[in-house]
Amino acid sequence: MPLNDSADAPISVAHFPFNRCDVFRCTACARLVLRYTEFGGYYVDHRARRVDAALVSG
User: What is the model's pTM?
Assistant: First the structure.
């Protein structure tokens, strides 16, 4: 599952795609991950992003 391109981009939980994410916690390291599915015309792309609390905004 690919990560989003920029690890330092803001995470706005009020906007797509983060307003449609599921939140998961890694059982090995306890990191939080946002997961969502991007549906294109002919493809389905599963995406994920590690959560950095400093980047989260409303």
Answer: 0.71
